[in-house]
């Protein structure tokens, strides 16, 4: 995410990922941190994996229903590696070629049709988009559903990406991040990596010079990991207004589900306030 030049004003984001068929009705009365009512925000970012295995049992429609219950002016959603029907090239092994094509068309219709509009959702495919909010804040988002090949999942092609099998990040993406240095980078995919920190690119460059091939995961960082333990209210938004634009990037792994076979919605969503530029 990058900024336009102008006067700034606070903008509130709710950042989630890897909801995997999650429904608030299934979570009623639980102590899980992702639950209703959610505070009103300006922008909802869903970083992929709406479903567990595509459109089985109308999973995309159920995901839209869940997102429709969140109060946000703008709701931006991308696919993840589990949203297999949204990947035109993915083939479910038990379906014929024709059935796979039809499943893809149906999924795209759902994510771009009337139900999406009713839920207030904007489905993003890979590309760069610019949005202007009612308060005249303008920002640019580069969206991509792709990740390095990970078992037999969809959208196969650095940081907060450690899982039992090792690091599952994309080195090319990390180099691109270092070059562009956006204000915020949001993602999910690796549930175990849930957390956030501020990447200081200048410090990282000095570390590389001093240590040669230093590992990104070894850098010193401000860690804002949630322990998922809350009472009845959401915590106050995390303030990141101190981020130095062009020098630092807020990295957010927003996976709601925990790692392992259980995959429970016990990771807290991120509510973040950022100062963004108003349209001149």
UniProtKB/TrEMBL annotation:
InterPro entries: Calcineurin-like_PHP (IPR004843), Metallo-depent_PP-like (IPR029052), UPF0046_metallophosphoest (IPR051693)
Biased composition (Acidic residues): 222-232
Disordered: region residues: 211-232
CDD domains, per the entry: MPP_239FB
Origin: domain of life: Eukaryota
Family annotation (Pfam families): Metallophos
Gene Ontology MF, one: hydrolase activity
Domain Calcineurin-like phosphoesterase: 12-192
Protein name as it appears in the record: Calcineurin-like phosphoesterase domain-containing protein
Organism: Ramalina farinacea
